[in-house]
Amino acid sequence: MGRFAIGTLSDRFGRKPMLMLTYSATLIAVLVLTFSSHIAVPMFYAMMMVGFFFGGTITVLPSLVGDYFGLQNHSQNYAMIYQGFGFGSLAGGNLAVVFYTYIVLLIVSLIIWLTIKTPKYVESR
């Protein structure tokens, strides 16, 4: 459901605001998962939020790559980003402190999105 909802909303409100929303919501959910003491209802909703917003993030990225780098080399650029998802899924399961690492990376991602500037013009031949 996250892919459909976030993809549709990113077309309406913009990619940067939606990615900031997804990273913020995921950060809150991961903090709940990491620091809650087995509270059943918040844990369930936090897990659902992580799945919903993580799925939505991957929907926005192909369009975002086109916006920032143009369509000329879109396949090569997006392939590099998609490899990050693959490496993250492989490495994530092997890390003993996966949620702490995820929290730090979400904060770094939010800082990047707060400071990055949208390109004025990207050649798309």
Please report the total strand number as a whole number. Answer: 0
Give the averaged pLDDT, no decimals. Answer: 83
Low-confidence stretches: none
Oligomer state equals: single chain
Class from secondary-structure proportions:
mainly alpha
**What characteristic shape results from the CA principal axes?**
globular
Number of domains: 1
Sheet with most strands: none
The percent of residues in helical segments reads over 70%
Describe the structure.
The chain has helices at 2-13, 15-35, 40-69, 74-92, 98-115. Helix 2 (15-35) packs antiparallel against helix 3. It has one domain (2-115). The chain starts with a helix and ends in a 10-residue tail after the last helix. It is mainly alpha-helical and 125 residues long. It is built from 5 helices and no strands.
Topology:
Layout: H1 2-13, H2 15-35, H3 40-69, H4 74-92, H5 98-115
In short:
The chain has five helices and no strands. With 125 residues, the protein is mainly α. The chain has one domain.
Provide keyphrases for this structure.
125 residues, mainly alpha, 5 helices
